[in-house]
Amino acid sequence: MTKITGKMLENPPKKYRPVPFWSWNEKLDKTETARQIDLMDKAGLGGYFMHARGGLLTEYMGDEWFENVEIGVSEAQKRGMYAWAYDENGWPSGFGGGIVNGLGIKYQQKYLRMEEGEKQTEHTICNRDGYHFYYEINPFYVDTLDKNVVAEFIKRIYQPYYDRFGGRLEGIFTDEPQVSRKGIPWSFVLADEYFKEYGENLCDRLVHLFKKTDGYEDTRKKFWRLIAKLFSESYSKQIFEWCDKHGLKFTGHLVLEDNMRIQINANGAVMPSYEYYHIPAMDWLGRRISSPLPQIQVASAARQTGKKQVLTEVFGLCGHSVSFAELRWIVEWQTVRGVNLLCPHLEGYSLRGIRKRDYPPAMYYQQPWWGDYEMFTSAMSRIGMLLAEGGAEFDTLLIHPQTSAWITFDNGENEGLEYYQDALDKAISVLEQKHILFDLGDEIMMERHARVDGNTFIIGNQRYKTVVLPAHKDFFENTKNLLAQFEKNGGKIVRFEDIENLAENRVCDTAEITYTKREFDGFTMHYFVNSTGKEQKCKFFAGNKKFDIMTGKTEDFCGEYTFAPTDSIVLFDTGEKTEKTEEEPLENLVLNGEWEIKKADENAFVLDFCDLYIDGKSYGRVHINSVQQIACGFKKRVNVKCVFDFVCDAVPDEIFLVCETPEKFKFTVNGAEYKFCDVGNYIDISFRKSDISKHLKTGGNVIETECDFVQRDEIYENLEKSRIFESEKNKLTYDNEIEAMYLVGNFSAKARGGFEKLDKNAVRTKGEIYIDAPQKCVNLQNIEQQGFLFFAGKITLAKKFDAKNTNLKLKYTAHGINVCEVGVNGKSASKIIWHPYEADISPYVKEGANELEITITNNLRNLLGPHHLKAGESYSVGPASFFKTADLWNHFRAPEWDDNYCITETSVEFKK
């Protein structure tokens, strides 16, 4: 157990700090690579996963690639950070960027299929019971059940990293390795392995996997146990042992961990693999609350096998509008269940082209809030450090009913499977509501590590006095024997139907609050999280010190707390007595009306519709994201002209055209040739600016871009492959990309027809959008509707007020704002990123005249969208969210669309 010092609490060491996916998605440049590492260091990050991803223009695993990895490694060493490799070009891991699956059919992924009748083909496995059993091939992924295939993956990808960098790398991340995504898996090794394991001919039993004929339960139990065992040992264990031998850490997560049904095809089961990771991991994408099974599975396996840190790949799909309060909610939903290390998704080396739509948000320097990100990373690191280093002694074990799910899974109706999943979720919910600390017990892991010692049930490092049996159909014989011995020795077994009768662990009086604890020398940590989205008043029966996750300091605590929605509290129990102190109440200051705009970042106007011409032929008015697919459809060089139009009611004194790769285009503005003169960047280094103010006029304006559009034959081939399997799509790039452009500067962006109110704190424009003179004043409600439609940045607003009473505070609610900094009379009073949305301004207020300043920082949502989903704002955002027509990126299913713009609200409202 590491001794936790006050200094560590105030400034957590880098080993506990977030390690983001750093998406290498562009032409790499060593100077730029070093610059970005400096940015991460200053933002309080602990390291980075150097992750090849779609858009990469540097040869994967080539000399230039490794030169940039060297920068990553050497800069990390200088800064005390941790540089990690990532083992694939895209994902899912295992195919080596196409090298391993390219070695032939033995290496390629296969699926078991059954059809009526008998026949003989090159893919026949056998004919039995009136059925033909055969396999289908996925040529774009690999057979992860065959240890020799995985050994080739290690040789081709892992060994080159070690040969160049040795132990200077912290370790390697593997991403979403899988057995199958399209039905029951097959492998050339399966029949022999089945016979070795059970002494039976698998061909005689294949029908049981599809139909409930005599003996099906035994076959399914054996088959899926073997799949999970082979996968965990051939893939995870083999790589783990290689990394361990070479002084590297192995981390990463499997695909589809959310519930038992989707785990079966994909992995057999996930828990047996987790013991073979130095840092076991999972992913949790989007803004959602659902079954906590993934967190509990991975954290249980980690505790049982003595792993301190548990990583989550997190925030992908949340969309750019996600607030720090929501990020905290997403994290703490997981940390209270055992996760303690963050892998934020995603830091794009570039946002150029397709990269900007890569499952946002951008968790990187392009965001207006990046300069305040360290507040968030430090707070989450304090919690993660305490959870990782504290002793976790859970005395209740819930047996995992994965075996029952296997028996009911037939690749079709799966009758009864949902019952077992729902019952497992109910058991977890009851235990959590009673604040009973528990682990899940996986049966394969119990075969490896479980025993009974008197009335104690042991799995690896953990010891349990109570075993809870879920609703189940069957268990392994080993499990039945362990349970029988445990019960005979006086161990406590609770059946599913009796779970409600378990005595609660009385640490607080509110069932909706989720709880865990950790033991340290000198104190006990009690951690309570409100994930309900509602305010919760709570009394506590543990803890005498409140730990401030924002500062690392503690203060006396006397047993009562009102949780804001998605709030948490960390209490320390030191054994000392505390006394309740009364604080003088502060009066809420409410200032309505207009506020002066003292300072604002550049405003923006989006140009994302154009009249399209290809080789002189008109294709009508299209959304810009359709142009790429239309042009690629010709599969040859074509001339592409895009005509953008917009209206200026007033021509700004300062306005710039922002374009990606402007060197590839000819420009015309209002009929005259225009030379793009680069004067810097906007948001991302690839978004280049050129002064256009002298070329615009009041009324209608037109900007034309023209280019010769061509892709290499390889790109067209990859586009076709990408239709078939995700491994090809996830590493896809283009030679040419045609994207939206932006106008930025000192102006207003407005909607002439007003706004329609939408769900999720959003509005939709009506009618024409246009550019107008800059605003001088705004109200605090719906700032986006007052000339800031597409704004991404900081605005400082000021208002004068008279004070008779200086004992004042601000209390407010906010939408669309990530950071709010409050200043009084030229002095900063508070910087707020989440609840409580309050600022004590009493030390800065004087009697008489005062000036209050509020600097609000939003995010990239209103600039980068998605703007046109008919449903409005989305909390699950991926590439598919941005395309009007059926496209590769939306699986050729066009979304419901609206050409008007969905904009999220930017509002502050004071509370009385």
TrEMBL record:
Question: PANTHER family attached here?
Answer: DNA-BINDING PROTEIN (PUTATIVE SECRETED PROTEIN)-RELATED, SECRETED PROTEIN
Q: What is this protein called?
A: Uncharacterized protein
Q: What species is given as this protein's source?
A: Qingrenia yutianensis
